[in-house]
Amino acid sequence: MTALRAFLPGGDDCAPPDERRLARCLVVDPCDGGRSSLLLQFAFNRALRGLRTLYVCASREGLAARPPVRPTRGGAAAAPAGTSTGFAPPAAEHEALRRIAVKYVPHGEALRELLLALHLGEMEMPHTLIIDDLHELLPPAAAAGGGGAAAAAHHGAPSPARPSPSKPERQHGAMQAACTVALAAHAADYLSAAHANAGGPPVALLVGAAAPLGAELPMLSRWLPAQLAVAADPQRAGVFALTGAHATDPWPAGADGAPPAAHYSLADRRLREVAPPAVASWG
Fold this sequence. Notes:
Elements: H1 16-20, E1 24-28, H2 35-47, E2 53-57, H3 60-65, H4 91-97, E3 100-104, H5 108-117, E4 128-131, H6 134-137, H7 147-154, H8 167-197, E5 204-209, H9 216-220, E6 226-232, E7 239-246, E8 261-265, E9 272-273
Parallel strand pairs: 1-5, 1-6, 2-3, 2-4, 4-5
Antiparallel strand pairs: 6-7, 7-8, 8-9
Helix pairs in contact: 5-8
């Protein structure tokens, strides 16, 4: 099992060496390929192992406008005898969902205040910290590389024309993004140390964005060395591929030499793993 299957149903048994590669991770989804669904499934898989998650996103309205699919267990556990799949989970799944807390923040300053509050012990310490909608929480100049328009399309709103930001504005946006992610990484390190004192696992930090962040991307790799991208399958409608790269601990390539990938579908409002595309054979 590759680390990327930790984002799919059945990924709750992902081996710790694989999962460690996702301890600091950026997930970029420019094609509306269910980024939030992947992040929540990752949280759910960890919740099945008793680990708590704090999932932070930009707004309740935005999440309701494009609701993620409900996370489910994979394999035989997804459909126990006598139950309907996905909509009547057993007690263990209900308990797992209770371990995922959702927090809405309207802007980057509110997000930074929340990250600072994690150091104060004012809330139950999570084992996973997920920050979704980073493109919406950045200053407009930081999201002008495509995130602003993608965010508007993601939530069904028109994307107003915006003049290209000046170089100082781009630099300011990049610094805001870097400072926010650095603060999140520091909070995750603090939580990891607190859990380690109690014999617990390290905290995973995942950040999601709707589009490439341009100049910010190389800066963010300092704190988020695992960088994943969602792409639509050009040959199969409704099928997407999640591919990954790691700045310091590369994943082994597949048998065909291609980078690791997890293929999935969101048909019928369910997240399902699908087989990779067939490779044409010549001769």
